[in-house]
Amino acid sequence: MKLNLRVWRQKNADAEGAMSTYEVDGISPEMSFLEMLDTLNEELILRGEDPVAFDHDCREGICGACSLVINGDAHGPERTTTCQLHMRSFKDGDTIDVEPWRASAFPVVKDLVVDRSAFDRIIQAGGYITAPTGSAPEAHATPVPKPDADLAFEHAECIGCGACVAACPNGAAMLFTSAKVNHLNVLPQGAPERETRVLDMVAQMDEEGFGGCTLAGECATACPKGIPLTSITGMNKEWLRATRKAAKR
């Protein structure tokens, strides 16, 4: 395939950015989107130009590093990560716009790379347990009801890619934060910090400058791991419970 690419180029966080147009030829439908960008960068390097900077790591849909808005959609037209998006989703002659995540809490570092350390700070605020665990426990030593285990596993699938923030018209991080809160709060190991966890993580989320949630639902639609919108409802219930409990003390 021969494709026309319109790629966001920005030298650094302080520089003005703009879309640059490139043509790439000989693109196989079996290539991943990142392999297509690799092909573009090889051509740019051969021409003595600066390659396009973009985030990537495992390229297996696990790490959450890849983070591109493709033709206006977080991760592109398929419900998957950018690294698992293949060029068969496009046609010969297509024009493809490639941009970084758009959110004030995710400042651009260079080109398509954004700083997502705000997510790290939200997790540091409460995404952990303090109970000493020692060595590995015996299997079934702490019984967990299957519905609770299933709910915890569902939320543990969040890879922190940030697609929810990029897709949200308000730039909210509620789906990410709720996944981390619900993952631990539903398990017995997370019970000691149940109240402080949700209060601290929501407070840190607000401090990072993410927008407010209006339940537009775009976050759940864009999430490559299928974290449900009801996750936000669950966190809101936890937050109200923790707030009322704190007020009674």
Explain how this protein is built.
This protein has 249 residues and is of the alpha+beta class. The protein has 8 helices and 7 strands. The chain has helices at residues 33-46, 117-126, 146-156, 163-167, 174-185, 194-207, 218-222, 230-247, and strands spanning 3-9, 18-24, 69-70, 73-74, 95-99, 108-110, 113-114. Helix 6 (194-207) crosses helix 8 (230-247). It is elongated.
Overall radius of gyration: 20 Å
Question: What global shape is seen?
Answer: elongated
Total helical elements: 8
How far apart lie the N and C ends? 66 Å
Q: What is the mean pLDDT?
A: 95
Strand line-up in the sheet with most strands: 2-1-5-3-4
How many strands appear in the DSSP assignment?
Answer: 7
Could you spell the SSE succession in H and E letters?
A: EEHEEEEEHHHHHHH
Helicity level? 25-40%
Q: SS-based structural class? A: alpha+beta
Fraction of residues in β-strands: 5-15%
Strand count, sense and closure of the main sheet?
A: 5 strands, mixed
Quick tags:
single chain; 249 residues; alpha+beta; 5-stranded mixed beta sheet; 36% helix; 11% strand; elongated
Write the layout of secondary structure elements.
Blueprint: E1 3-9, E2 18-24, H1 33-46, E3 69-70, E4 73-74, E5 95-99, E6 108-110, E7 113-114, H2 117-126, H3 146-156, H4 163-167, H5 174-185, H6 194-207, H7 218-222, H8 230-247
Parallel strand pairs: 1-5
Antiparallel strand pairs: 1-2, 3-4, 3-5, 6-7
Helix pairs in contact: 2-5, 2-6, 3-5, 5-6, 5-8, 6-8
